Amino acid sequence: MNDERFFTILAAITDAMQGTAERAPARLKSRLYSALVSEQAASGPLLSLPATKAAGRPLCVFENLLQVMPVGERVTSMNPCRVCHARVLAEHIESPPIYWPHCPYVAFRRPVKLDGSL
Amino acid sequence: MQSDTPSAPESGAATAASRGDALASEEAILLDAVLKKDRKATAEFVSRYADPVYGYVSQRLAPRADLVEDLVQEVFLVALQKLDTFAGKSSVLGWLLGIARHKVEDLYRARLREPESFSAVEDTSNSDPVTLPEFDELIDSARAQEKTQRILALLPEVYGLALLWRYWEDHSTKEMAAQTGKTEKAMERLLARARAHFKRLWENEEP
């Protein structure tokens, strides 16, 4: 078998087996989210937290706190995740200890199985 | 009471069509929310599409896992920049995979265009002759897959990328040369060295 034929066959065989897609690591999803929101914030204010809630999307405990405080729309349009420890944890740990609901980073967390493995 | 719903023979196709429409409209709502900078919609966008995009890029760059995450991030950033131009002619996933495909091609091109990529690796093509792997070895495709991944990971990066681009992405030597600004002969020499190195490792590796 010549080189070309060998590599052509090898590529065909191994390519056909690559149908099982891997899941993206939770750390990567967290970093993607942070990068996208940071990019959105760089070009102007984000949708304010009250407007986000009004659109039917639940807020996390910190976002809720921020949106009931007597602060202007400028503040509620900022990204509090930027200074939240949950973001830092989620960008570095596959299953970060975030125990409050509706934190965007919780959705990316890879569920821990009963035996403790990821 | 008479109903406006189609009769039974049409209902399968109609249901599928309406399911498709519902999905498209769900995607349109999500994209609209992302464009309005709704951060929760952005989180949903990542949740929904990161796995398939990551899967695609990993496959195309396997086993270069070190390159995958940065490239996936680039795909999403480009998608965000171009989101307002998405016409909805394909699914969002199809569109994202299109961006990913271009990014993978850009990476191959950039890595093989680097001046040192053709000279930095040792030329082993003219040393001891290497017997070609037997076809029988390839029949056990699961093993072939595993062994191929292992060997590609051991190769110098430029060899691995050249082989992936030529055989797994199915690009001709001529195309590769044109896209990297090299001569066809130079590209052929690189591929010959890459193949020789691969085969040497194939011989020496455990099955």
Distance between the termini of chain B: 70 Å
CATH topology of the largest domain in chain B: Rna Polymerase Sigma Factor, Chain: A
Mean pLDDT of chain A: 84
- Counted by DSSP, the helix tally of chain B is 9
What does this structure look like?
- The complex is a heterodimer of chains A (118) and B (207).
- With 118 residues, chain A is mostly helical.
- Chain A has seven helices and no strands.
- With 207 residues, chain B is an all-alpha fold.
- Chain B folds into two domains: 19-111, RNA polymerase sigma factor, region 2, helix turn helix motif (Rna Polymerase Sigma Factor, Chain: A, Orthogonal Bundle); 116-204, Arc Repressor Mutant, subunit A (Orthogonal Bundle), CATH 1.10.10.
- In chain B, 73% of the residues lie in helices and 0% in strands.
- Chain B is built from nine helices and no strands.
- In chain B, α3 crosses α4 (92-113).
- The longest helix of chain B has 28 residues, at 8-35.
- Chain B is elongated and about 55 Å long.
- Classes of the chains: A mainly alpha (118), B mainly alpha (207).
- Chains A and B meet through α1, α2 and α7 of A and α2, α3, α6, α7 and α9 of B.
Brief descriptors of the model:
heterodimer, A: 118 residues, mainly alpha, 7 helices, elongated, B: 207 residues, Rna Polymerase Sigma Factor, Chain: A, Arc Repressor Mutant, subunit A, 2 domains, 9 helices, disordered N terminus
SSE layout and pairing:
The complex is a heterodimer of chains A (118) and B (207).
Chain A: H1 3-16, H2 26-42, H3 49-54, H4 61-68, H5 73-76, H6 85-92, H7 104-108
Chain B: H1 8-35, H2 39-61, H3 65-82, H4 92-113, H5 135-139, H6 141-154, H7 157-168, H8 173-180, H9 184-204
Helix pairs in contact in B: 1-2, 2-3, 2-4, 3-4, 4-7, 7-9, 8-9
